[in-house]
Amino acid sequence: MRILQLIDTLHPGGAERVALNYANSLLKYGMQSHICATRDKGILIDEIQVEARFHFLGKKNTFDLLALKKFRNIIRENKIDVVHAHGTSWFFAVLCKILGVKFKLIWHDHYGQSEFLNRRNLQSLRFFSAYFDGIISVNKKLRDWAINKLKFKNVIFLNNFIKIREESDIRPVKLKGNSEIKLICVANLRAQKDHRTLLEAFQILTKDYNSISLHLFGKEYNDQYSEDIKNLIESLTSVYWYGEQKEIYSYLCQADIGILSSVSEGLPLALLEYGMARLGVVITDVGECRRVIGKYGILTNTRNPVELAKAVNIYIQNPYKLRDYSNNLQARIKHLYSEEYVIPEYLSFCRNLC
Question: What residues does the Glycosyltransferase subfamily 4-like N-terminal domain cover (predicted)?
Answer without folding.
Answer: 12-155
